[in-house]
Amino acid sequence: MEETASGLLSSACQIxxxxxxxxxxxxxxxxxxxxxxxSEWRTLSSQKNDxxxxxxxxxxxxxxxxxxxxxxWLKKVEEIEKxxxxxxxxxxxxxxxxxxxxxxxxxxxxxxxxxxxxxxxKDLQEKxxxxxxxxxxxxxxxxxxxxxxxxxxLHGTSAERKKExxxxxxxxxxxxxxGVYGMGGVGKTTIMRQIYNQxxxxxxxxxxxxxxxxxxxxxxxxxxxxxxxxxxxxLSSDETSRAMELSQALRRRRNFVIILDDxxxxxxxxxxxxxxxxxxxxxxxxxxxxAVCHSMESDREIEVKGLTREEAWSLFKEKVGGExxxxxxxxxxxxxxxxxxxxxxxxxxxxxxxxxxENQLPVWRNALQExxxxxxxxxxxxxxxxxxxxxxxxxxxxxxxxxxxxxxxALYPEDYPILVDELxxxxxxxxxxxxxxxxxxxxxxxxxxxxxxxxxxxxENSYNDKCVRMHDLIRDLAINITKEQFMVKAxxxxxxxPKEEEWVESLERVSLMGDLVEAFQGQxxxxxxxTLLLHDVFWGRITFSxxxxxxxxxxxxxxxxxxxxISLPASLSDLVNLHxxxxxxxxxxxxxxxxxxxxxxxxxxxRELFSLKxxxxxxxxxxxxxxxxxxxxxxxxxxxxxxxxxxVLLKMPCLEILSIRRSRWRLSYRSNANAEDNSTIGEIIIxxxxxxxxxxxxxxxxxxxxxxxxxxxxxxxxxxxxxxFTLRYKYDGHYVENESMEKVALPxxxxxxxxKDCNFIELSDVFHWDDLRQxxxxxxxxxxxxxxxxxxxxxxxxxxxxxxxxxLHSFEGLCKEKPxxxxxxNLSKLDIFRCNKLKYLIPNDLLVNNxxxxxxxxxxxCDVMEGIISGKTSAxxxxxxxxxxxxxxxxxxxxxxxxxxxxxxxxxxxxxxRCPKLKELxxxxxxxxxxxxxIIVSEEWWKAVEWADPQLKELFQPSFGHDIGLxxxxxxxxxxxxxxxxxxxxxxxxxxxxxxxx
Length: 998
Description:
Layout: H1 2-28, H2 30-62, H3 68-87, E1 95-96, E2 101-102, H4 104-132, H5 157-171, E3 177-181, H6 188-202, E4 208-215, H7 220-231, H8 239-251, E5 256-263, H9 269-272, E6 282-287, H10 290-295, E7 300-303, H11 309-320, H12 331-340, H13 345-354, H14 361-373, H15 384-395, H16 400-408, E8 418-419, H17 420-430, H18 439-455, E9 460-462, E10 467-469, H19 472-481, E11 486-488, E12 509-511, E13 519-520, E14 531-533, E15 543-544, E16 557-559, E17 580-582, E18 603-605, E19 627-629, E20 642-643, E21 657-659, E22 665-666, H20 681-685, E23 693-698, H21 701-714, E24 722-728, E25 752-756, E26 777-781, E27 788-790, E28 802-806, E29 813-815, E30 829-833, E31 840-843, H22 844-849, E32 856-860, E33 867-870, E34 877-879, E35 885-889, E36 901-903, E37 909-913, E38 934-937, H23 939-944, H24 950-954, E39 959-960, E40 983-988, H25 991-997
Parallel strand pairs: 3-6, 3-7, 4-5, 5-6, 11-12, 12-14, 13-15, 14-16, 16-17, 17-18, 18-19, 19-21, 20-22, 21-23, 23-24, 25-26, 26-28, 27-29, 28-30, 30-32, 31-33, 32-35, 34-36, 35-37, 37-38, 38-39
Antiparallel strand pairs: 1-2, 8-10, 9-10, 24-40, 25-40
Helix pairs in contact: 1-4, 2-3, 2-4, 3-4, 5-6, 7-8, 11-13, 12-14, 13-15, 14-15, 17-18
C-alpha cells in the first residue's frame, strides 16, 4: 500500500511539474527562441519576395490574374511582419529593479509571443511552398484564340513553294515584317490562310497567331477591336489609349504573329498599337501594291504570281469537267482560253465553271473571241486581262435578270456579309423577280438565282449560307460596269451627303449604307432612281430636307433601317411607285407621314420602332400590301397598349405576312376602327386567304377564341407556315372567376405553348384536353394556384416532348390520381424549378407505364421535395431505359430518388449540388456501365455518400463543382421573358429547330 501511494504521489508530482518546466523553458530560452524566429522569418520573407517576383512577371508580361489563395497568403505574411516588427529588441522590457534583476514575467510573456509567431511563420512557409513552385499562382491563362479559317486547297506546286518561302521568312529570327504582294485574285489570301491554320496547329512556335482583315477602307478602331478580341483585352474609347493598351498587351506575349489581310494603303503599325521592335514577333500583310510594302518598311517582300501554264491548264480542266469534256478538237481552243486567264486561280475557276461540261466547238470559239475582245477600263492594281476574264463570266450568266441581281450586290460595302433574305426581298421589290404565286414561291426563285451566281463563282457563301459576299475583285468589276447608273459609297464613312450635282438624272440605284451622314439636304433630281439604301447611315438624329424625295417618283425600294431619324419629310407620301418601305430599328422615329398614296406598296416594315406614337394614316389604302411588320416595338416599361385597327386588314387581300406581336397594339374581339363594324377579329382575319405567317397579341381569351374558332371552321390555320400568338387571360380588363372563365381554344396545329401567371388549378380549367394532344413543347411559369397537370383518367400531353414547370408555388405533382396510359408517353425532357410545395414529382404508376422515353430530368430549388418518385410498389425494380442526364440542385430535404432499384441503362451524366440529405446513388448505377458515366458533385457530398457496395465508389472519378454557374441553365423560347402578366402564348415552329434548341 505504501509503495502504491508513493507511486501515485510521484506521478502526481511529475504531472504537476511539467507545466512549470515548460514555463521555465520559455523564460530560459527567450534569446534562442527569438533568434530561431528571426531566422525563419527571413526565410519566409525571401519566399514572399520570390513569389511576388513571379506574380509580377506573369501579370506584366502575360496579363495573368493572381488567385485569391495567393493574395490571402501574402496578406497573412504582411500581418506576420507587423507582429515581428512590433516585438522590437525588447531588452528593457524584461528587466526590473532598475535593470539589476530579470523581469521573469515579462520574459515569459515575450517568449510565448515569439513562439506563437514562430509557429505561424513555419505554417505560412509550408503553405507557400506550392506558390514558390509556381503552382496556383494564377487563375487565367492566355486567351484561347479562334479556330482555323476555312481555306481552299492550293493549286499547283508553285503556290506550295510560295507558301514555304513565306513560312521560312516567318521563322527567320532576322525578319520581323513581311509584305506579301501580287495582283488581285492571284491567291495571296488563300496561301496566307493555309499558313495561318498551320501556325495555329503547331502552337509551340508562337504565343498567339491573329488574323485581321483590313480591306480598302482602313478603319482604325475596327482593326484595333479585332486584335483586342483575339488578345482578350479591353480597350478604351480614346484612340491614343487604345494603341497604348494594345501595345502593352502584345508586349506581354513572348512572341506573336499578326496577319493583316488586304491592305490597300500604307498602315502605321504604331498608330494601331503593334510594336515593331522584334522580340521574335512577326507582322505579315497582303496587298495588291508593292508600294505599300515600301511605305510600311517591310524587311522582306514576297511576290505571289499566277500559276504556271501547266498548273493553270490542270486547274482549268478540273473546273471544266475533265478530259471527257476537252475533246481533241476542243483542246487547242480550251488551252488558249486558259492562257487568257493569265494564270490567276480566281479567273480560271470562274471561266472554267462558266464553260463546265460544254462540248460544242462553236461555243468554245465564241468564248475565246469574247475573252480576247473584252475591254474594261483598268482599275487600280488590276490588269485588263483579269477584268476580261471576270467580265466573260458575267456575260455568260443566263439572263439579264441574273446579271441585274448580281450587280445589285455591289450596293453593299466591301467585305460585307449580305443577308440572303434581305437581298432577295430587295430583288422582289425591284421587280427583278416576277410577282407570281406567293412570297415563298418568289423567294425560292431568288434562291435559284443565288445558286447560279454561286455556281459561277460571282458570289460566295458566308456565315453558314445565311449570308453571301462578293469577292473584292468581282465587286470592283460590278462597280465598273454600273458606274453610270449606280452611286455606291457604302461603307466609306462619309460625313456629308453627296453634292447635289452628283445626283445625276441617270442614277438608278444609290447606296450610302454604313456612312456617317447626319443631314440629307437639297432636292436631288433623280427621276429614274429605283433603289435608295441609307440604312445604318448614322445612329444619331439624322434629318432630311422637306423636298428631298420630291423628284424620286420612280423609287421602289427605300431602306432607312437602323438610323436615328425622328420624323420623315412629307415628300415621302408622294412616292407612289414605292414597293418597299423599310424602317426597322429606327428607335427615335415618333411619327410617319400619311401613306395613303402608296397604293403599290408591297412591304412595310416598322419593326422595333420603340418611339412610334401611332400607326401611320392611310394603311387601309395599301391594297397590294403583302408583308406588314410592326412587331417588337414594345418597351418593358410600356403599360398603355392600344387596340389594332383590325378593320384595315379587310383592305389588304394580298397580305401574306402579318407580324404585330410585342407591338403597342393588340387584336381585340371587335375592330375598334369603326363603331359600325360588328365583325369579330376571327371574321376579319380569316378573310386574309393568302396569309402564311402570322404573329400577334390578343387582348383576351374572347378575342383569341374568336379567331381560332373561325379559323377552325375554315381550316385557315392549315395554310400558315408559322404563327405565334400571345393572349391575356382576362376579359375587358377584369379577371373572371375560374368557374365561368371561357377555356382557351388552341389551334389544331399548334405545337408549342407557354403560360405565365394565370389563375387555374389544373390545365383542364383553361384548356380542353383534346386541344393539347398535338403539343410538343410546354412551359408553365408563375401560375401560383396550379396544383396538378391532370387528374385521374385525364389524357395529359400524349405527344409532348419538352415540359418546363417554373415557379409554381402550389404545385404538388404531375398527376393527382392514377394517370392515363397515354399521359406524357413521349416526354423526353422534364425541367422543374422553384416548386416549393412539391414533395414527390413522379407517381410510381406514371414511372412504370408512361415515362419510357424520358431522357433528361432537371430539378432545382424545390425546398420541400423529399423524393423524385413517390408511392410504394411491390416490384423491386423499375426502369427509365432512355434516361441520359439527371440534374439535382438545391433540394435540402431530398432523401431518395427511388425506393427500389431504378434501371437506367442509358444514364451517362449525374449532377448533384446542395442536396445534403441524399446519401445514396446505387439505385441508379449499373456496375458494368460506370466507365461511361460522368458524375459532377461537391466534394463534401461525395465523401458522405453511403455505398452498399464499397467497390462501386472506387470505379468513379467524379468532377467536383462548387459554382452554381457550372450547370445552371435557362430556357427562353422566343423572348419568353418579355411576356406580359396573365398571358398564354401558342405557336407553330419548325420541329427540328425546336428539338435542337431545347
